[in-house]
Specification:
- The structure is a single chain.
- By secondary structure, this protein is of the alpha/beta class.
- It has two domains: about 1-95, Elongation Factor Tu (Ef-tu), domain 3 (Beta Barrel); about 110-230, Rossmann fold.
- Helix content is about 25%, strand content about 30%.
- Helix 6 links the parallel strand 11 (about 205-210) and strand 12 (about 230).
- Helix 5 runs parallel beside helix 6.
- The relative contact order is 0.13.
- Bound molecules: FE2/S2 (inorganic) cluster (FES).
- FE2/S2 (inorganic) cluster binds near residues 238, 239, 244 and 245.
Length: about 300
């Protein structure tokens, strides 16, 4: 039957008017997925390929969970799909899995997630918890009415219930309507300063996922403290196989500029090595095409 056919949407949940969580039948991907990886989705035969993070998966049920923010033509098209609809194709899992290692018992692994950065952070944080690591999750939203995955029965709270003291969750909002007022960098700076005074759990590593400017701010903040920081890059991608160059990330290694590809070398890269001045403008590369496409589709 249709519901068990590959690539079929079997559950659809509106997290926010513009943010949709889809549970999709994809048994092979669900069986092979590792934390930190993504998939490449083709929504319709003549459509464009979009990279989407694996927000969750269930190997037994043969399902994967994608969280899609309607931004461009394709993501809006995917978000408009209904239960029973079928995506044309899903390739994956793609990208390098997160490097997981056991940290010292008194340390913590910090995640800073901005907005829809939370779904990609979730499986990596969970994998760290399962490994026995203490995790500090700093989740930032623009305001209280844009929250998702927070509250009873929701993913963050379920994780908290499962792992107890092993997980510390700190919320921020830009307008102070939920949690600490300000960006994710506010509590992160407090933690780094505390570490410098010899207080709090020493930060073993920071992983940042979210809007490019947020990742840059986190990276700039942690650099002088010498805190190892990894950015999981939601670059513009086309083929996601290292061939097209769309996802190029300029990285400085020993003063030499090296081109890395977010799709095959990443998505996680050492954020202190990224040349952010050169990298950030790349997010605007396809703005005019995207605009044209929106006009064509009447969005
Ligand atoms: Fe084409 Fe990475 S998406 S090289």
């Amino acid at each position: 039957d249709l519901a068990s056919a590959p690539n079929t949407i079997i559950e659809r949940r509106e997290l926010q008017p513009n943010i949709i969580e889809l549970t999709v039948n994809a048994p092979v991907i669900a069986k092979n997925a590792q934390a930190g990886q993504f998939v490449r989705v083709l929504a319709e035969p003549q459509g464009e390929l979009v990279p989407l993070t694996l927000a969750d998966w269930d190997a037994e049920a043969g399902t994967i969970v994608l969280v899609v923010q309607g931004m461009g033509t394709t993501s809006k098209m995917i978000n408009a799909m209904k239960v029973g609809d079928r995506l044309e194709g899903i390739a994956g899992p793609l990208g390098q899995p997160s490097e997981l290692h056991k940290i010292a018992d008194d340390q913590t692994v910090v995640f800073t997630a901005g907005g829809v950065g939370l779904p990609p952070v979730y499986p990596i944080a969970r994998a760290n918890l399962q490994l026995g690591n203490h995790v500090t999750l700093i989740a930032g939203f623009r305001s209280a009415d844009l929250l998702f995955w927070v509250g009873e029965g929701e993913r963050v709270d379920e994780l908290q219930a499962e792992f107890g003291d092993q997980l510390e969750v700190i919320y921020t909002s830009n307008d102070g309507s939920f949690g600490i007022e300000g960006f994710v960098t506010v509590p992160l700076k407090d933690l780094l300063d505390a570490n410098q005074r010899g207080e709090g759990r020493p930060i073993a590593e920071v992983t940042t996922i979210g809007p490019p400017m947020m990742m840059r701010s986190v990276s700039d903040l942690t650099k002088p403290y010498g805190a190892k920081t990894v950015a999981s890059l939601n670059s513009i991608m086309v083929d996601a196989t290292g061939m097209c160059g769309a996802c190029m990330v300029p990285v400085l290694i020993d003063g030499k500029l090296i081109r890395k590809h977010a799709c095959i070398d990443g998505p996680e890269l050492d954020s202190h090595a990224i040349d952010w001045d050169k990298f950030l403008p790349r997010f605007n590369l396809f703005k005019s095409q995207e605009q044209q496409s929106k006009i064509k589709h009447g969005w």
